[in-house]
Please model this.
Amino acid sequence: MKKMLGMIVLLLVVQMACFSLASADAAKKGGMTPAFASCLLGPRIGLELNEGTPIRTEEWINAFLFPIVPFEALDKNGMKGCLTSCLICPRAGLELKERKIRNVELAQLIPVVGIITRAMITLEAYEGKTMTEIEKAENLKK
Model:
C-alpha cells in the first residue's frame, strides 16, 4: 500500500513538472523550466529551451510513452544517431551531423557519475546557458 501511494505521489510530481514545462514562456532564459526539461526529457532540451527552441511533441511522447525520436534519428543519422538518441538525449541523436557529443553527456553512461553529470547539465540550464554558448566554448560544431 505504501509503495502504491509513493508511486501516485511521484506520478503527480512528474505531471506537475510537465505542466509547468508545457506552460512556460520560451523567451525566458534559465530557471526551473529549462532545468526540469534537462532533467526529465534530455540534457540538451533545457539548454535549447533557453535559446527559445520549444520542446517538440515527439520528445514529450518519447519521454512518457514510446520512443519515437530514436527512429527519427535512425532515418536522419543512421544507427549512430539512433544509439545516441537512445542512450544520451533525443536531440543529440538528431543533431549528430551538426554537433559533436559533449564529454559531460558521455559521462552520463557511467552509473554513479551519470547522476552527477546530469545534475551539472541541469544546473547549466537553470543558470540560463544555451546550447550555442556551450557549442562555442567546447568546440562542438562539426
The mean pLDDT is 84. The chain is about 70% helix and 0% strand.
